């Protein structure tokens, strides 16, 4: 990763709520530029929702000029229709980035949790607590889950491209990881 500032757009895709977060990383400094949620529940057709996702993603890219897109991959669940809808939302966001020559990387939810907390099975509350520490902003009670998830994806991507990927061996917990890796914890 270069030493100049880099902006990362993180997206938690959805056809009812799409979370987004933009980080600017400069050396060891991580700053939240913008985060929020695109609410789509008032729209009635899939076409309207996908168009709005494309437009919002394009607007965020135009406004903030991120160099990379990090997006959460749809998880495999029991409801195939929900997974297909998530995949469409993800695809539209990716298409908006590609239309502006911005590369993308997708991350499984478990991978994001692993990178942010050191534990792939972490709860959303644990992820939010670590994001508060990493980003030095209030997350719990302040941001929606979707916006928090989008920031988590962006942080995961930053760790991935900077070589600061957090991994633990099976059976280890967060406390033992912190003890073994004190230099990886931001003050």
Q: State the major sheet.
A: 5 strands, mixed
CATH superfamily: Ribonuclease H-like superfamily/Ribonuclease H
Number of strands: 5
Helix count from the secondary structure assignment: 6
| CATH fold annotation | Nucleotidyltransferase, domain 5
Element pattern in H and E: EEEHEHEHHHH
The assigned CATH architecture is: 2-Layer Sandwich
Write the layout of secondary structure elements.
Layout: E1 6-12, E2 17-26, E3 29-39, H1 46-64, E4 68-72, H2 80-99, E5 104-107, H3 109-117, H4 124-135, H5 145-162, H6 174-180
Parallel strand pairs: 1-4, 4-5
Antiparallel strand pairs: 1-2, 2-3
Helix pairs in contact: 1-2, 3-5, 4-5
Question: What features would you describe in this structure?
Answer:
Strand 4, helix 2 (80-99) and strand 5 (104-107) form a beta-alpha-beta unit. The protein contains six helices and five strands. It has helices at 46-64, 80-99, 109-117, 124-135, 145-162, 174-180; strands at residues 6-12, 17-26, 29-39, 68-72, 104-107. The chain has one domain (6-184): Nucleotidyltransferase, domain 5, CATH 3.30.420.10. The relative contact order is 0.18.
Index terms:
about 190 residues, 5 strands, about 20% strand, single chain, globular, 6 helices, alpha/beta, 5-stranded mixed sheet, Nucleotidyltransferase, domain 5
């Amino acid at each position: 990763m270069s030493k100049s500032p880099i902006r990362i757009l993180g997206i938690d895709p959805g056809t009812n709520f799409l979370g987004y977060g933009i980080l600017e990383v400069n050396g060891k400094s991580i700053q939240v530029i913008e985060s929020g949620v695109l609410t789509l529940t008032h729209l009635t057709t899939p076409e309207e929702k996908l168009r709005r996702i494309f437009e919002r993603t394009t607007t965020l890219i135009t406004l903030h000029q991120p160099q990379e897109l990090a997006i959460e991959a749809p998880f495999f669940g029991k409801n195939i229709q929900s997974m297909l809808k998530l995949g469409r939302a993800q695809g539209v966001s990716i298409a908006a980035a590609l239309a502006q020559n911005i590369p993308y990387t997708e991350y499984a939810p478990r991978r994001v949790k692993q990178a942010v907390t050191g534990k792939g099975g972490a709860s959303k509350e644990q992820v939010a607590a670590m994001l508060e520490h990493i980003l030095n902003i209030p997350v719990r009670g302040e941001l929606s889950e979707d916006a928090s998830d989008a920031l988590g994806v962006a942080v995961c991507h930053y760790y991935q491209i900077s070589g600061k990927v957090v991994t633990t061996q099976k059976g280890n917990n967060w406390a033992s990881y912190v003890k073994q890796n004190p230099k990886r914890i931001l003050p």
